[in-house]
Design goal:
The complex is a heterodimer of chains A (about 325) and B (about 325).
Chain A lengths: L7 H26 L14 H8 L7 E4 L4 H7 L3 H9 L22 E4 L6 H14 L6 E6 L6 H12 L4 E7 L2 E2 L2 E2 L20 E5 L3 H16 L5 E6 L17 H8 L3 H11 L5 H24 L23
Parallel strand pairs in A: 1-2, 1-3, 3-4, 4-8, 7-8
Antiparallel strand pairs in A: 5-6
Helix pairs in contact in A: 1-2, 1-3, 1-9, 1-10, 2-3, 2-7, 4-10
Chain B lengths: L1 E4 H15 L3 E5 L15 H5 L4 E3 L4 H13 L3 E5 L10 H8 L2 H4 L8 E6 L15 H5 L5 E3 L4 H13 L3 E6 L7 E4 L12 E4 L4 E5 L3 H14 L4 E5 L2 E3 L3 H11 L2 E4 L8 H12 L9 E3 L10 H7 L3 H11 L4
Classes of the chains: A alpha/beta (about 325), B alpha/beta (about 325).
Chain lengths: ~325, ~325
């Protein structure tokens, strides 16, 4: 085992957060099957270390924005399981009042700038969030997540160029789970090492093991420090893997069982569990108890969502414009 | 009152708002060191510095999105598109991000910002530099769309747009930047969403907006010589549209001609005709007639440009048609 440079609290925090995301996502899949959750629903099971390793490396005043695989990011930013689950149900108690759904979780209070549905569309937004921090003279930064598919969008290249030109305090994180929906990275590019894209803009870039909280944290810590110091953006390609399909409607037939098993053997939650136990920072029983508590929290969120009302039809005209607006009704 | 060019009116609006509100900044191609492709932002770099007057690379999608992100995080950007033709490569950020943010975030994030620049034809600029997308943007909930026709409106409406808490599309014209007009000396604003009855009349309502108001003025002269007294309405904003002013006018004149530079299908004129038949059906003495650009891309040759654009002659013919004088 590699040298341990993180303390017990950090490992426990990682374990707790990743377990919450894992159990929440598993429950979401089940509820999707029961048609309680509708629409598109993208799960991040297997990718939990990316957000866990990020959260331990930033502060609560930093900002996060991501694409539509956003349940885990929302939970990591501190949104309650209740508010995220209720949003999946489309209930008025959801974090965006039943208006966003799975792909559009947001919380201003938690500096979570959302869940965005157009591949790559959040990349310039992330740079803009960082520009506002720079403009206001704060030392807050923005972590902007994107998938491997988004690397092929022009928005990324335009944004990388301007983020470097203007030295913006932003960390771009490619969660490379190998597949843009059903199309593997190999089938969309000659440049298989995605982090190398950063070199075209002289952006410090690095490839990171995304199944390891430690690796993610260490790279993120350096990137965040660089941004905070005013030294500009970083591009991290974090190699990860989603155990499920692209969305709930994807049986993922484009990949082999062996490939999936290889990654499952590297499961980030099990790695952290092993460390906690081998270091005697937690007993197996204590971790099981924690899991049980998390399972209860998720179960309660389902009950909360079930018991919450759908938004009233009158909500349709709320939050479209700030202030009065003469909507057309004829 | 003082006389200023259209571009100066826009500049005054931006400068006044930037002096009052630190959060307001301007970004776009050539806005800073070049002093603006059409000199709208002339001198602004000197006053406000590079932090607040930002030259961008030619990357409309990227800088439009960066501005949206900045607006989400508390700033109030003004994005200059060198022309709205180029806004098409940024339209994802305008429609999918700026216009939707308030709604899809359940009110967590708003985008108080202005996208501004010239719209429409400006001589023999060819097919890709001569288009009108007022109706495209006006179709989208979450946006407001302002299309001023003179310096006084331009200043008052731009100030309102910068202060608005919603994303505003603000459309100008290369051919109007040099247009002179009187504006009030002191500070003033004009509310978004109010049409201006430019001229009272009895015989026909002519409604238009933006640069086409100049063509309408020309047509009015010709109509007066024929003894026709037109009521002329400048919509000033096309989202929202001030239907009440329009309907009141049509109830008086019983006839309507719409003049619009965009193509005809699903245009602002289609919308106005719908609303007039819906709300003033019994008042109409003739079918609504519209004068739009021809239903083709704009070619280069001067003869073809003339054949394409709304003209004084076509407006006069349209009025003849609705007044059965043809």
């Amino acid at each position: 085992m590699a040298k341990i440079k993180f303390n017990k609290e950090t490992y426990l925090r990682w374990f707790e957060l990743m377990m919450l995301i894992r159990r929440f996502e598993e429950k979401s899949a089940q509820l999707y099957g029961q048609q309680k959750i509708r629409g598109f629903c993208h799960l991040c099971i297997g990718q939990e270390a990316v957000i866990a390793g990020t959260m331990s490396a930033i502060t609560k005043d930093d900002n996060i924005i991501t694409a539509y695989r956003d349940h885990g990011h929302a939970l990591a930013c501190g949104l309650s399981a209740n508010s995220v689950m209720a949003e999946l149900f489309g209930k008025e108690t959801g974090c965006t009042k039943g208006k966003g759904g799975s792909m559009h979780m947001f919380s201003k209070e938690h500096n979570f700038f959302g869940g965005h549905g157009i591949v790559g569309g959040q990349i310039p937004l992330g740079a803009g969030i960082a520009l506002a921090e720079q403009y206001n003279g704060t030392d807050n930064i923005c972590v902007c997540f994107l998938g491997d598919g988004a690397v092929r969008q022009g928005a990324l290249h335009e944004t990388f160029n301007m983020a470097m030109l203007w030295n913006l305090p932003v960390v771009f994180v490619c969660e490379n789970n190998e597949y843009a929906m059903g199309t593997s990275v190999e089938r969309t590019t000659n440049v298989l090492d995605i982090y190398k894209i950063g070199a075209a803009y002289d952006m410090p870039s690095e490839q990171v093991d995304g199944m390891s909280c430690e690796a993610v944290h260490e790279s993120m810590e350096k990137a965040v420090a660089r941004a905070r110091k005013g030294d500009g953006p970083t591009f991290l390609e974090i190699k990860t893997y989603r155990y499920r399909g692209h969305s709930m409607s994807d049986p993922a037939k484009y990949r082999t069982k062996e490939e999936l098993e290889t990654y499952k053997n590297l499961d980030p939650i099990e790695q952290v569990r092993k460390t906690l136990i081998s270091k005697k920072w937690a007993t197996a029983k204590a971790l099981e108890e924690m899991e049980e508590r998390i399972e209860n929290e998720v179960a309660e969120s389902v009950e909360f969502a079930e018991n919450s009302p759908y938004p009233d039809a009158s909500e349709l005209y709320e939050d479209v414009y700030v202030g009065d607006y003469p909507y057309l009704t004829e | 009152m003082k006389t200023v060019q259209f571009r100066e009116a826009l500049r005054e609006a931006m400068e006044e708002e930037m002096r009052q509100d630190e959060r307001v900044f301007l970004m776009g191609e050539e806005v800073a060191e070049y002093n603006g492709a059409y000199k709208v932002s002339q001198g602004m770099l000197d006053e406000f510095g590079a932090k607040r007057v930002i030259d961008t690379p030619i990357a409309e999608l990227g800088f439009a999105g960066i501005a949206v992100g900045a607006a989400m995080n508390g700033l109030r950007p003004i994005v200059e598109f060198m022309t709205f033709n180029f806004s098409l490569v940024a339209i994802d950020q305008v429609i999918n991000s700026a216009a939707k943010m308030n709604s899809m975030s359940g009110g967590h994030f708003t985008c108080p910002m202005v996208f501004r620049g010239p719209t429409g034809s400006a001589g023999q600029l060819g097919a890709q530099h001569s288009q009108n997308f007022e109706n495209w943007y006006a179709n989208t909930p979450g946006l407001k769309v302002v299309v001023p026709s003179n310096p006084a409106d331009a200043k008052g409406l731009l100030k309102s747009s910068i202060r608005d808490e919603n994303p505003v599309i603000f459309m100008e014209s290369e051919q109007m930047y040099g247009l002179k007009g009187d504006i009030p000396e002191g500070e003033y604003t004009i509310p978004i969403g109010l049409a201006d009855v430019v001229q009272q009349g009895e015989d026909v309502t002519i409604v238009s907006f933006g640069k086409m108001m100049r063509i309408v003025e020309g047509a009015d002269k010709a109509l007066r010589e024929k003894g026709i007294n037109a009521e002329i309405i400048d919509l000033r904003t096309v989202r929202p549209i001030d239907y009440d002013t329009l309907i009141r006018s049509v109830q008086k004149t019983n006839r309507m001609v719409v003049v619009e530079e965009a193509w005809p299908l699903a245009s602002i004129s289609s919308e106005l005709a719908f609303m007039v038949q819906k709300r003033a059906f019994d008042h109409l003495d003739a079918p609504v007639v519209r004068v739009t650009s021809r239903d083709v891309p704009l070619p280069y040759a001067p003869t073809l440009v003339d054949a394409y654009l709304p003209s004084v002659q076509r407006i006069v013919e349209a009025v003849d048609q609705v007044t059965y004088r043809g």
